[in-house]
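Hey all, sorry for the wall of text incoming. These are the two entities for the joint prediction.
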Amino acid sequence: MVYFDAASAAPLHPVARQALTASLDEGWADPARLYREGRRARLLLDAAREAAAEAVGCRPDELVFTSSGTRAVHSGIAGALAGRRRVGRHLIVSAVEHSSVLHSAEVHRADGGSVTEVAVDRAGAVSPSSYAGALRPDTALACLQSANHEVGTAQPVAEVAEVCRAAGVPLLVDAAQSLGWGPVEGDWSLLAASAHKWGGPPGVGLLVVRKGVRFAPQGPVDERESGRASGFENLPAIVAAAASLRAVRARAAEEAARLRELTERIRTRVPRLVPEVEVVGAPERRLPGIVTFSCLYVDGETLLHELDRAGFSVSSGSSCTSSTLTPSHVLRAMGVLSEGNVRVSLPPGTAREDVERFLSVLPGVVAGVREKLGAPVSAGAAAARERDDVLVVDALGRRCPIPVIELAKVIGDVPVGGTVRVLADDEAARLDIPAWCEMRGQEYVGEEPADRGSAYVVRRVS
Amino acid sequence: MVYFDAASAAPLHPVARQALTASLDEGWADPARLYREGRRARLLLDAAREAAAEAVGCRPDELVFTSSGTRAVHSGIAGALAGRRRVGRHLIVSAVEHSSVLHSAEVHRADGGSVTEVAVDRAGAVSPSSYAGALRPDTALACLQSANHEVGTAQPVAEVAEVCRAAGVPLLVDAAQSLGWGPVEGDWSLLAASAHKWGGPPGVGLLVVRKGVRFAPQGPVDERESGRASGFENLPAIVAAAASLRAVRARAAEEAARLRELTERIRTRVPRLVPEVEVVGAPERRLPGIVTFSCLYVDGETLLHELDRAGFSVSSGSSCTSSTLTPSHVLRAMGVLSEGNVRVSLPPGTAREDVERFLSVLPGVVAGVREKLGAPVSAGAAAARERDDVLVVDALGRRCPIPVIELAKVIGDVPVGGTVRVLADDEAARLDIPAWCEMRGQEYVGEEPADRGSAYVVRRVS
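and here's what came out:
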């Protein structure tokens, strides 16, 4: 198998493995204890904290280890909001944050707080001016990822941090996807990260709270990790996490250049090799190892399955690959096509040959899926000319990508200037029909309520 | 070094180590993913859940893995309280619970809930009737440990569960100290445990919520672990935890009998070898591997330090070994002596010779500490006969065990029937002076406010 899903999880880095094994022997005891084994564990913990702090660019006493990146985000947001409760209860997040940030925002909203979601452009990036516009006198905290986990787009963190700093509002940066590549620039206030994204073991996150930032840990606390992360420290994993962060950083510049070249090749080749493809995410300001594209008239689950059969492990933001049958919130916020979505995220060390083989396999796989889906005209999705020469496509009860396939089949029958109404009740259609119009140069008129689902109206302009 | 602090943490079990190493290769991927590595990770996770559920005696879908035992307790209590919020906001805990339970209770109280702390007897055990007495119409949840982590006393969980069940109140059992020895008996509703107590790696806890128990997870949740434990699953550690639970259980009966004999030997020998010692905790209904005793006129920190020098790692509930300079809440609740406290907790496999060597070293170590502390009469702690023939010992500004040492020095000068007032401002004196009276057959009259600290009044009766 060729594993192209490093943004989900990476196999343990050899250095991490070595450190883990060694500290299972040396670091199993309670670092709070006074006897020899405890003191040895304490030394290991202190050394790991110093190494991690150096990699982040903070003081060791500003950094605590949590049980996961998700936990670091949850604790960081809750503690920062509580620390500034007197200022107000307004929270700013971008629309493309990791679910851990958005779940924290939901909890805050349910608890009576207010939340502003900052929109992104079609490449998935926020602008510093939208953060500036979202700031209010009662803003307690702003959150922004360093780079997006689904499309790789880097965010203007330093600029947003400056805007927030000027307003006296702390900025929490979710650096999960980027910390292995380098420190987060700019004058941020809090930072969260996750070790298993940089080849460390699972079960370790980082939470950094800069000195001077008001912070009130929420929920039950104990004396561990400065009262910011309770429970027995997962020491062997912490030591391994710090060791692998140091190891990946040592080769980050070289490896970033190499992976960037490989993802650049995918970015340019895929649209030439596969018809009807949209590569999404920022072309320049982006992570080195992630490239994401969506294929019209393809369902993501079948595509993933066929790629898996062909020996490639990738992930997808398509609705059919999620348990809730809704497309990825990131693709939705960007307004790009979600059907047939593929995220390729290369682990460090990815061989060029594997990328070439992926490029040689992909066109046939996509064509095969399209053939399976598109060849027979479905009986249930009949097109009928109705009142005022409006063509109606009934795709009710059909899942992504069928509504778009049916639309594409009939658009040629619509006179230029005429419209077609697509009836659909699949959540993905709301995103994918406008995205299809954008890709094919047709006009998306809008969505209208219908007896069942919605009617999506499209005008043929070319 | 001989490590006698298994109740804090145990070195990784060889089976856990093997499982951990293997699943670092096989189980690093995201079990939520559809590709091969993800499916393999899912299989490992499912198998670990089944093994753990079998050991607990529950259904696999009732059990989730958390990032620590502490986390399992925090989430379990918060979720159970929220699930029964309509019934009321009253929580019952015993006075000798683990700090994770008491911290949860503090948070609940701070949030407007009410908490009843059930008292324990001098052996550290609760009685089912005190739980029955604490139950109210608005009781949302009761918590009880299966066995105490400091003195080893087993609690009457099955009986308390029955009392709670009859009142329709769920019982959460903190089984951290006992789960390696066997399943928790009785009709409990929720259970929390911690893998590194049974030789598993740190970073893994268990939370079991029986079907039918109302439970509303608090804080941000995601789709992992049935929405009850968020963040990427720590799969290699989970696999190792389940494997070691199975391994220790396979030898639990045999090993329990062996360790019980060793701790029984410490229980009987220590009072014969060391003068002025109180062995605390239940003599019969107790964990196999834990024995705790307190030595009069000894400070815990020096004792631990000297035992460490002699090659033994133990822990202590004495005030001087805690960061807050207060004695262990467990010893306080039991009303037993806290000075010179030593907890010996034997890991499975402890050799008899190590226990014998401990018994041969201990008397000299205690005598040495006592000599250092007790030989010179402190200038600051002068005894003076004052009004109405009351002897006053001024131990203000002196830390445990000095107040008790000074009391012991003058008691011979007090006529039988007369009293002595000990002035002290060390928190431990409040516990240790009554405990000393109990041990020495003198009458503790009570505590009175003083200009500084308190005056503890003792009447000589023999």
